Amino acid sequence: MLVSALKTGVQAAKNAAPVAASSVGQVRGKATQRETKTRIEACHSVYKITKAMQSIANAKLNPAIARMQESRPMAASVRAFIDTACSEVQVPELEAGASCLVIPITSDKGLCGALNTKILFKTMNTIQDLKEKKMKIKVITVGEKGHKNFQSMNPKMLVHTASHFGKTDINFLQASRVAEFVTQTPFDQATILYNKYINRVSFTQMAHTIPALTFFSEQVSKFGEKFEFEGDEEQILKDLAEFQFAVQLYGALLENGASEQSSRLAAMDNASKNAASMALELTQLFNRTRQMQITAEMIEISTGAECCKAKKEE
Amino acid sequence: PGAAGSFGVLVGHVPVVSQLKPGVVEIHDGGKVEQFFVSSGFAFVSTTAADICAVEAAPVSDLDSDTIKENISTFTKTVADAQNDMDKATAQVGLDVNQAMLQAITGAK
Predict the structure, then answer these.
(1) Does the CA dihedral A111-A115-A119-A124 come out positive or negative?
(2) How far is A116 from chain B, CA to nearest CA, in Å?
(3) Contacts of B14 in chain A (CB under 8 A)
(4) What is the pTM of this model?
């Protein structure tokens, strides 16, 4: 609703007749003045909407950052365990024809600046690299924006999509569901691409590579060297593989969520400033034109008066 | 609350990986003891730290015994009425977690 109102406002500002900028001689009629007035009102409404979106993004940003930072230790600890255990184990090089799953994380809604274009660009680069290594590529998009992009550009690669679940805050349950959904497609390697939040004004694109879920079970002996396992090793590693995938996905979703809010905040801030300056320019033009009209009428009147005076004197 | 049995970790413990079953994790800091109920997850003990990665965790003081007792009766009924294995397993999980929560409260008191 907010987005469609914004679009109509922008259309109204664009569709109005272009401005006649010359100052001397050409006078705008009342009709074109009316159009300028429409444009000014359109700018004001656009300003209100973008300002509202900016404050909403601002309000959502801090809790998003807090949740992301709270979750970072969990993702770090799981990854640390895997790194320690895998430090002697080389993840096997993929042979040509291995199936690679590419998972770009995008937002559902737009008007968030360059967030989605950047991640989709990185996704295309990743796909290009994998293609050169002759891998079979499947894409599962998370988020509407990614879904739309791949549907129009590369529908064959798109296997599944998961979207419209971030309405309430993203929690681990949702991340687990998405992870479960994703892992139904078997893969030799998965790459999760997301925007990592750096600070209020910047974020960067990250790609995490995750080996096949079976990798963990296959490396039981190596894990066993470093750690004691309470209980059945194979069962633990099987569960651990799924758990770490869900944890990594959860971390990626939270980081992308925080980046989305900060990107939207900056984009809407710029849009508000632009709308305000455009409204100012148009208002000045309107006033100048109004004054020119008045001056023109005064000239006509005084010319007429002079003529009558001159006639009288004859 | 390890899946194979509860265990305690002190400094210098052998590195361990354990899956967790629903139960209480106690953190002893000097004289203070903090109790958290975890629904499940993993515990990683390394030479430098012990990390508990739980799917869901809450301080035991946040658990409400009336809601838990209601849940237990609901889940017991669902387990009995379950039509297929999947539903039965899901309800059983709910039952196990709630029973463990009840034990956590009554045990702590």
Answers:
(1) positive
(2) 29
(3) 228
(4) 0.80
